[in-house]
Amino acid sequence: MAEEQMEEASTAAAATPFQLQFDKPIPFQIKMAEWNPEKDLLAMVTDDSKVLLHRFNWQRLWTVSPGKCITSICWSPDGKIVALGTEDGLILLHDVENGKMLRRIKSHDVAIVCLNWAEDEPQSKTDKDGLLSYEDRTTRFFPPAPVVPRIGGLSSGDTCLGDENEESIQEFSSASCQRFNILCSGDKDGCICFSIFGIFPVGKININEVPIHVQSSGSKASYRLQDASISKVSLSGNLHKLVLLCSGKLIDIDNISHSNDISGGLHCLHLDTSIFFNRKNELHQVSQQASSIQYLVEVVRASISMMAKQWSGAMNLFNEKFSVLPSLITAHGMESSSEDEFMSLLFGTRTSPALHQFLVSSLGEAALKRIAKSVDSAGRELRVVVSEHLQPAVEIISFRLAELRGLARWRSRFQNIGLDEKLIDGVTERIGMLVVQVERFSRVTATVLYLFQNFFSWVLKCVKILLSEPTDQVPAANSEFVVLFLKFLLDKDPIKQLLDADQRFECHLDTAKHLEQLVVLGGFTDTHFLERSLMKQFNELEESLKEAFSMPFTTISSQIHCQALLPLYPITSLVDLSSTCNLTSVSFYKQDEDSQHSGPSYRLTDYICFKIPDGSLNLRNCIGVIKDFSNSSTSTPSLSGFLLRIPDEYECVDLSLYKVVFPAVSFEVILHLFVPTVFDASHKELVIYIKQDSQIVVLLSERSCSDNPGRSYIVMLQTENFSFVPLSKIFPSNIYSIQELAVRISASVFYLFGIHFIS
């Protein structure tokens, strides 16, 4: 019998297209890897959290070191971005072309354990590829958006933009015509975050706080999860539903006294996310504007920070030299001030010994020219930052907020997603105030720089006269402007004051009266904004933006509900929980790929695959497969599943489930990822694929006690040999679905013993 099986296996092997393409040694441990949607690029994360990108021919494209512990990875639906989740709750978005980091988003407070980036699929073949068409009118009136300033190698500081790659960021921020997509992320504390196009946060739920209403023993019961940790999340292609796997304790809200009898376990939840589909056009328009505004806010922040650093360096040098004069005045027993001494010199009254010593010995011509050059250089850089970065960014923000203001007035469409007209009006007024503040800063800067230049020319002429040197090469100075400098700039710094958030100014009475009169004509309702500094006005804009954008975030979050709960198996210890939480897979597939159905939506079938810990429900080395969980709440429930028993000589350390609709070469790509030579040689893996021609393809690796890897096999099984056993949605709280499979119908447990192996 064994010889016949081997002969059949050899014949089958000759007829199958599977073959090993590459066997490449890797000098480091790989802890996770993910193929791009086209299956020709492989992103891998090493144990020391380096990210590598390889082609299918094993050509390395780039390697980056984010400097953080990477805990999850996924690709954008178009394959242009690699998303990384970190241990400290950050999502890093990297450009596939060069590895540059496009965005850094703080979505969670703890480790992100899973990522899923889902795209709205076309509803039918006549759906014009499901593209959203929304014209961004900003490009009609403005040049390309400015980028974060980088002058003379000086960094602007920490921003949320990561590497400042102008072309990549602008292309990434432009989402005028593309399929609507959402990035989902789950963390170990049970929180799930949603971001449109991966950059605009639009919702967050804590699964521990979501009420779960289910049918239990013929009546409705309410549960909630305690100490839940997300394991997998998967958003359906039509964006209607999210299936997630999480571990935690199930608490009966209606009967708290008996909740302690319920052990922790792995649970499957179906969340209703139809708000994403029903309002995708509105969400697309809002996220288009809001994400660009958030990017430009970072440009404004970086610009102000850059200007403060540039000007501070020049003023430190100026103050260091000119602060010597008051000490010399005191040393000579005089009671005058620096301003008095310079005034006396300007009007030819006298030149005191202290001032003479300061100009000739302490300051000198060389030091004066160095200070003048430093101030002039800082001034030029300030003008560049204002004209090329700060002012364009503020003006584009103003225009985009005006667009959002128009959308907010369309209440029937945009009020349902939380776009509040009153809040947007408030933000629009504050950005108008910031535009005025930028103009004031620009004018003050120009005046200050001119007064500094005039003052330095006059001081240089005085030094040369005292040294009996010719002054014909020194530019003429205006004595009136010297007086203004001595009164308002010698001991004060208006540029620094405008860049200081804590500084307040006194507004002239006539100016304040004019501002109050302008309110009647549509001016700013806040007539005290000129008392604030540029930095203070920017901070207030940020606060109002945060409040306005939190409304869609809160509104969308409140419309995500739990539709169904399916306890899978109990977990008796934290050790079992930590060792099995990653051995799960959730996938959605169209029920009929060639369907001509043109209704409002198509039917999707979800497949949930998971390894059951040894000893749980008295099972050993078993894989559970369940389908149609998210459709079980419909009028025709079809929840079903089966168990797959793995031989004891094989070990499952990873699993996934695919419906393969690619040509044979794509099988080779997929298998390339999971052969033991790609990962650590000690890993023994099992991967499940659902093939289009009703076959299950299983990749097995033998257990091995030595350092040498065991043999690997591909097992092809006909799905008609497996009966998906119907499962009941009405369950007592202490009965798990897999126990129902194993106890009610013994035929639902299938064994891999005696199957023909194909090496």
Automatic annotation (TrEMBL):
Domain of life: Eukaryota
GO cellular component terms listed in the entry, alphabetical order: anaphase-promoting complex; nuclear periphery
InterPro entries: APC4, Apc4-like_WD40_dom, APC4_long_dom, WD40_rpt
Domain Anaphase-promoting complex subunit 4 long intervals: 267-468
Coiled coil: none
Gene Ontology BP terms: anaphase-promoting complex-dependent catabolic process; cell division; protein K11-linked ubiquitination
Signal peptide (UniProt feature, chain positions): none
Domain Anaphase-promoting complex subunit 4-like WD40: 34-119
Pfam family membership, one: ANAPC4_WD40
Keywords annotated in UniProt: Cell cycle, Cell division, Mitosis, Ubl conjugation pathway
The protein's name: Anaphase-promoting complex subunit 4
Organism expressing this protein natively: Zizania palustris (Northern wild rice)
